[in-house]
Amino acid sequence: MTTKYVEFVKRKLKEQTKLFEGFNQNHGIIKARNMFLEEMGIDNPERLVVRNDVEGEIVSSAANASSSDVLEQEQNGRVTEVADAFDGGDEGDVDSQDARKARSGKKPQRGDSKTLLVPIATIGCGKTTLAIALTELFGFGHVQNDNITKKHPMKHFADAILTEFPDHDVVIADKNNHFFEHREKLVATVRNHFPGCNVVALDWQVDPAREKEILDVTARRVISRGENHQSLTPGRTAEFQKILQRFIRERNPLDLTSRADKGIDQVIPIDVLSDTWTNLVAVIRALNLDMPTDEAIDAAIASAFAYTPTVVKTVDDRSRKGKKSESESRDGRSALAKYYGIRVTSPDLKDERARFFEGRQERGFWDAFVKGKRIKDDFHVTLVFCGNSQEQKKLPESRIELAKRYQTLITSQSSPSPPTNGSSASASASASGSELSSLDVTLTASSLVFSGRVMCIPVDLPYGIVSENVRPHITVATKDDKVKPVESNYVLNDLAEKSATASNGSIVVLPFDQLLQIRGVIKAFWY
Known about the structure:
Layout: H1 2-15, H2 29-40, E1 49-51, E2 58-61, H3 67-75, H4 97-104, E3 115-120, H5 127-138, E4 141-144, H6 153-164, E5 170-174, H7 180-193, E6 198-204, H8 211-225, H9 240-250, E7 266-270, H10 276-286, H11 294-306, E8 339-344, H12 349-356, H13 363-371, E9 380-385, H14 389-392, H15 397-413, E10 440-450, E11 454-458, E12 473-478, H16 487-498, E13 503-504, E14 507-525
Parallel strand pairs: 3-5, 3-6, 4-5, 6-7
Antiparallel strand pairs: 1-2, 8-9, 8-14, 10-11, 10-14, 11-12, 13-14
Helix pairs in contact: 1-3, 4-7, 5-10, 5-11, 6-7, 8-9
């Protein structure tokens, strides 16, 4: 309770500075105490006592802790906590000391210097990356639920956290903790042994209204890390995006008024869509830690991305319990991605197209696409389309073999860090199907093609890369949602058949002033 009073005084120092002007002369102490009790909803402060864990005797009322001492310590930059434990609630409360004693059968240990960081997250939000970076910078204890392989993993996860506390003041409970039950049991278990432990929620903001955006970002991260994860990977869990969606929809949002979350002392909101650097700095500041140098932060993040797990598990969509795994089709063949292709990594492709139309009479076509917000944000070249798991059962063997070739390449060369935009390595294999030497490639293009319905850029692939499309291309824009990107194929096929070089009815070909070099990376697209 004294800890909460210290936090109350620190907050009021910033909000109502004048309230504390006479504290060093013992003026206003009672008023501040009563404000604190009123805020906490306590009408009988005598039941809130601070006990000395060693002597077992009553030391002082938590509500009567010296506010002037708190003020002096705050001004000196060192607010300290003096309470070791407190009998803080009605019978049956999570934080009830008597209940904790009854459950553990042991006298509670001191725990005021301990902090438990509890993520409330979803898959692909970056919680493990953040945890590893914090551990690199500050030496925190770190327990990954994904490393627990025994039966009753929830119990073993909590036990592993308890074993970290004797050697660490701060321990990160690296798990999604997206259910009330998980958080309540975890906090109760830790408080059984460390009743004064400060519990901080790292609350990734998973807003249901932003589900599509969050699903898109987290799915990209799962794809980017490839097979470098203990359990959920594109290769081992083919339709993993369904699991991501389920986690988002079933998540129990943080609710400090609920029984499950009332034991949480501090909440640090984290943006799912922000990058690791932004979230790491935000957490460091919220925990009042000394800010490391930019170089140290860079090194910690690099170490986190370079992390390679040693435990391997397989996760299936539980909605198919009792059926064949999602990662295996009915005929035993491994499930494939929706399609395999090249994601364009050249950052300025859209700007280059805008500059290309400046001063041209066809500028109106481009402006119409821009005005209608039809220009794509992400560009790719489809190499082989597989469809969903049902459609894949009907694919010809030649397409399956080509898809497997790219799946094997991606699985063998994927890393936990995002692909770089450095110089591309050309493919060194023959078109017969031997493996390529890199996922990074360079495409070349000499013209832009558009009709009244679709705009695309035909591309030439590097040696060794094979596409099922006769004319590989990047679809830049479509007229509206009714026009599917696949229409680019029809336009280019029609153009090739009629050997048009300048214009062909509604199809227009605009040559570039010079050959365009486009960087990209071979990827599996699962949705």
